[in-house]
């Protein structure tokens, strides 16, 4: 009986026991060192490489023994063996990228007489297919996690629910009630309102109260899109469809919004050619990427918005009447700030709380006289402008309170709206005029489509031929 068996906890004697009792012990040890499925790396307590198994050397392209004597961090990408050799804490089943390959590694500290003397790394090498598949999945998941981290950072300050829409005035209460009603209905919603009045907030609230809320709403600002990019942004493009197109092709916003909502902001700025194509996508959910003939399908809920007067654009033939009817299942009108000045104190307090921590401000109060004065201003830039002014005042204010003096520069705010404001129902055009010009626009478009064939036009529009002739007469006598 050997000492090893008497003291099985003694590591040296365990090794002696193994060698003495297994007659192929050396073959087994040799197998561990030359195993083509596992690379072994040994470092001493200073993290200097003492041994690298042959298969691992080949992977890195070293001569036999070529890396020995060098610090491990200089030789092996993303290694943590130096950490393990210092701390003595094992790291099991970790993922490590080496030469663009993801591998699973175990890093274990080595002790001698109870003292930390180095560390050994074992890398699953030339791993079976499942490990490759796992590493592929890990890479995909990492990319997704990175994406969601960014998304989350953007969302942290904004939950985009109804609570984000600050205000208790009658018009805001009514708007919130309307949002609550239409959000779950899956009908297209058109949000009208002046610039800066909160249309985008409304769009987010609609999406977040809808059945599609689990997927992120896709937002496109049609006004900010350069004309040459509109189509590839919306429809996506096939590999190499045009100079500068990504080699692997790219999904457009329509595709990205599948099973979610698509928010087309500033839809009034969309070029006419794109409007025709958008109409088709809305009507049957089918589209092709730029440079491809393959039809793809998508299913999104459309929310659109503009601060422009679409009825006027239709009359000027800059916006298609048929598209207008399609996007406009329900219209929600966001009131201007002038129409709800009673919300100004609440909004100002909300902004003071939001802005304070970001600019390290001590302001925690707004003097009632300042709040009274702010309610008398016309606010052509609406809530966005109020937000800017509060921030500016906070940046320059001393002490803990915003006073009238901090808003002195606002005295000469111009009355007229900065944006081309949406006219109220009673102003500029009457309903009859509006309906009339839409009717004309629809007829003109149908005539174009059917190359002047009045029978087809009347059938398509669901009107009698005599009514069509009457309208054509009116149209020809218009200036
Ligand atoms: N009721 C509100 N409560 C709180 N913040 C608001 C409210 N309305 C608007 N805001 C804020 O005002 C700014 C402008 O709002 P938003 O971008 O939604 O306006 P918009 O009508 O979409 O403007 P544009 O027509 O220029 O796109 C944003 O910072 C938004 O958070």
For the record, give the distance between the C-alpha atoms at the N and C termini, rounded to a whole number. Answer: 117 Å
Please indicate the count of domains: 4
The gross shape turns out to be: elongated
Binned strand content:
15-25%
Structural class: alpha/beta
Main features:
single chain; 479 residues; alpha/beta; Beta-Lactamase; Rossmann fold; Helicase, Ruva Protein, domain 3; 4 domains; five-stranded antiparallel sheet; five-stranded parallel sheet; 20 helices; elongated
Give an overview in words.
Helices cover 43% and strands 16% of the residues. The strands form five sheets. It has a five-stranded antiparallel sheet, with helices on both faces. The protein has a five-stranded parallel sheet with strand order 7-10-13-6-14. A two-stranded antiparallel ribbon has the order 8-9. The protein is of the alpha/beta class and 479 residues long. It folds into four domains: 3-130, Beta-Lactamase (2-Layer Sandwich), CATH 3.30.450.20; 162-333, Rossmann fold, CATH 3.40.50.300; 337-412, Helicase, Ruva Protein, domain 3 (Orthogonal Bundle), CATH 1.10.8; 431-477, Orthogonal Bundle (Arc Repressor Mutant, subunit A), CATH 1.10.10. The protein has 20 helices and 16 strands. It is elongated, with a radius of gyration of 35 Å. Residues 165-167, 193, 195-201, 265, 307, 347, 383-384, 387 line the site of adenosine-5'-triphosphate (ATP).
């Amino acid at each position: 009986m050997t000492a090893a068996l008497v003291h099985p906890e003694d590591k040296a004697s365990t090794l002696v026991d193994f060698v003495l009792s297994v007659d192929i012990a050396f073959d087994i040890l040799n197998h561990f060192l030359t195993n083509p499925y596992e690379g072994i790396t040994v470092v001493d307590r200073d993290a200097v490489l003492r041994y690298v198994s042959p298969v691992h050397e080949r992977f890195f392209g070293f001569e036999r023994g070529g890396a020995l004597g060098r610090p491990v961090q200089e030789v092996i990408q993303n290694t943590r063996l130096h950490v393990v050799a210092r701390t003595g804490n094992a790291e099991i089943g970790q993922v490590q990228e080496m030469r663009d390959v993801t591998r699973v590694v175990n890093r274990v500290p080595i002790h001698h007489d109870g003292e930390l003397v180095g560390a050994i790394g074992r890398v699953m090498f030339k791993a079976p297919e499942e490990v490759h598949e796992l590493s592929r999945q890990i890479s995909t998941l990492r990319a997704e996690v990175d994406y969601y981290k960014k998304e989350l950072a953007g969302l942290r300050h904004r939950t985009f629910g109804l609570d984000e829409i600050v205000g208790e005035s009658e018009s805001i209460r009514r708007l919130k009630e309307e949002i609550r009603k239409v959000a779950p209905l899956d009908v297209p919603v058109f949000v009208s309102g002046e610039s800066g009045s909160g249309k985008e907030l409304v769009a987010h609230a609609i999406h977040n109260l809808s059945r599609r809320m689990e997927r992120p709403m896709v937002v496109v600002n049609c006004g900010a899109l350069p004309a040459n990019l509109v189509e590839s942004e919306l429809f996506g493009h096939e590999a190499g469809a045009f100079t500068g197109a990504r080699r692997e092709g790219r999904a457009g916003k329509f595709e990205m919004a599948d099973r979610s909502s698509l928010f087309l902001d500033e839809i009034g700025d969309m070029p006419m050619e794109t409007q025709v194509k958008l109409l088709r996508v809305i009507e049957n959910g089918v589209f092709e990427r730029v440079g491809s003939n393959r039809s793809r399908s998508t299913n999104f809920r459309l929310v659109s918005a503009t601060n422009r007067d679409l009825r006027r654009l239709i009359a000027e033939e800059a916006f298609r009447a048929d598209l207008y009817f399609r996007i406009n299942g329900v219209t929600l009108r966001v009131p201007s700030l002038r129409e709800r000045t009673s919300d100004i104190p609440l909004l100002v307090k909300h902004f003071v709380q939001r802005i304070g921590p970001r600019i390290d401000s001590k302001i925690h109060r707004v003097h009632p006289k300042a709040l009274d004065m702010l309610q008398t201003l016309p606010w052509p830039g609406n809530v966005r402008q109020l937000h800017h002014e509060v921030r500016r005042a906070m940046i320059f204010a001393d002490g803990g309170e915003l006073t009238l003096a901090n808003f002195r520069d606002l005295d000469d705010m111009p009355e007229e709206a900065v944006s081309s404001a949406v006219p109220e129902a009673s102003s500029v055009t009457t309903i009859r005029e509006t309906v009339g010009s839409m009717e004309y626009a629809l007829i003109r478009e149908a005539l174009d489509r059917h190359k002047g064939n009045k029978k087809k036009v009347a059938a398509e529009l669901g009107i009698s031929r005599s009514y069509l002739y009457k309208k054509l007469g009116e149209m020809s006598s218009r200036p």
